[in-house]
Amino acid sequence: MFGTMELQIQYLLLLQHFREITHGIFDGFFMAATWFGEIIIPLTFLSIVYWGINKKAGRFIFFNFGLTLYVNVFLKMTACIKRPWLIDSRVCPIEKALPAADGYSFPSGHTAGAMSSWGAAAYWWWKNKAIRYTMIAIVLLVAFSRNYIGVHTPQDVIVSIAVGIVLMFFVDKLLNWIDKKPNRDIIFYFALLALTTILYIYLHLKCCVQMETYDSLKDLVNPLEMKHGVYSKIGFMLGVFTGWILEKRFINFQIPQKTTQKRVCLIAAGIVILYVLMMFLNKIFILFIAKHLAAAIIAFLTAFYITCIYPAILKISERF
After folding, report:
1. Which DSSP category does 101 fall into?
2. How far apart are CA 221 and CA 223, in angstroms?
3. Are 47 and 270 in contact (CB under 8 A)?
4. Is the whole model's pTM more than 0.85, yes or no?
């Protein structure tokens, strides 16, 4: 896949050598760049687009985001490919990057997150060259940063980009299909629930099988930790699409027709509430319920807030 593993390792070692001879002068820049693939920054971008710029574009992006992250975790749990430094001990990632690199390597979750948000924006506003090239540059920067800091091989990021491109075309066709006739949204939603149930059973069983051979002294990836990731991705996806269909059926908010200053204030308030909600939920649920269930509930409520609760607040605000 995209050349032998040895060639990929040599590429990572070349980047590692560059880090060493430059005394890590660019490390901080690429560690910052990789944050554009973390969930919080794409979520912020998605919320801004959906609440205050273009509702249809926001819908397209969060469809991509929800589906891409789930496909990514499914591929990770199916392929079970180890991180580069476990494949070859010569690879030494940047130490600060290690806490967020505790799962399987293939494909890259950060690249998937970047592709499904910034890449989806490039796809939607393709005719706008400034937006297109800026968004593509962010995706490529995130992808390269994952190689530069040593936590992913080239195949990890290339496959994430390829999957993201395929899903963007699929989501485009899917939304066109849904919009053509009434009640197709219901058909899609229940088909999604059925598919999610099947995939959940598969991934749950996969985690259980992996636990039988897990050795904490040899294996970096703890199947139980991956199980938490599986639950959070399922929760997020269900929150996205449950919020979407309820908003579509019962709320149907429109971008606030207010002055730019008031619109910015409304969006900023929504983002602040989102951050507080994520921190608050994490502290509360972890205390009272199992970690994997807490991960699912937190992810569900976060996505549901973005797609349904705050849009309802925005609609109410139009009355004042």
Report:
1. -
2. 6
3. yes
4. yes
